Amino acid sequence: MTPVDLFETLTSTQTEALNRLRAGDCGPRWIRAERQTAGQGRMGRQWEGPSGNLMASWYGVLPVEMRRVTQLSFVAALAVTEAIRPLLRVPDPLKIKWPNDVLYEGHKLCGILAQSETLETGLGVVIGIGINIAEAPQGLSYGPAALNALAAQPQTVESVLEALDAALTRRLDDWLTHGFEATAAQWWDQAYGRDRLCLIEQHPQARTGTILGLDDYGALRVRDPDGTIHVIASGSVSYPEA
């Protein structure tokens, strides 16, 4: 098990992990908070994490190029589904939504944020993972879900983190050794929304289309109604009819 530093309350496990990397701590290590008051999300969003849910950030220094950091959201999402799928009474509705959410029947169960910092020793990486275990916080996009309402038996934060750590260690090793191709294919097998029309909102325009999979760095490939294929590196993807 990768070492874990537990805090009663933090503003953000992500911030604490980044600060440690900048101070020369190369990890690997987990920062976990029992309560989080200003967790970091994608596009600068903040959220509050209640006690009983998993709020943790893995950090370490990896021998990879900066442009590959975007792939880590998919590595981590696969680790999350690998860890929690065996716990579910009905596992089939567990899906991964591009680029960083794990959903159950369309409801958000987990969010992921990968960040990086260039260091003298290599590329410092932080992977923040929040899993709703005891409680489904309100106000989240796609509505909330909580693991213990879906699991065959109640789970603790500690048991989920132990399973997640083992899965993430395996997934990172496979990604570092073999590249992104297998990860992208396995993500596609669990991709949310591949059977319906999606709306992609990118400033200054929005477009609809059907997702086709990932490119070499994790951008979403989308075919619009005219048959043109677009590569979406950033933006918000939703499914209005869902």
From TrEMBL:
Keywords associated with the record: ATP-binding, Biotin, Ligase, Nucleotide-binding
Enzyme type, top EC level: ligase
Catalytic activity of the protein: biotin + L-lysyl-[protein] + ATP = N(6)-biotinyl-L-lysyl-[protein] + AMP + diphosphate + H(+)
SUPFAM superfamilies: C-terminal domain of transcriptional repressors, Class II aaRS and biotin synthetases
Entry superkingdom: Bacteria
Parts of the chain that traverse the membrane: none
GO molecular function, one term: biotin--[biotin carboxyl-carrier protein] ligase activity
BPL/LPL catalytic domain: residues covered: 1-176
Pfam family membership, one: BPL_C
NCBIfam families (alphabetical): birA_ligase
Protein name as annotated: biotin--[biotin carboxyl-carrier protein] ligase
Source organism of this protein record: Asticcacaulis currens
Lineage: Bacteria, Pseudomonadati, Pseudomonadota, Alphaproteobacteria, Caulobacterales
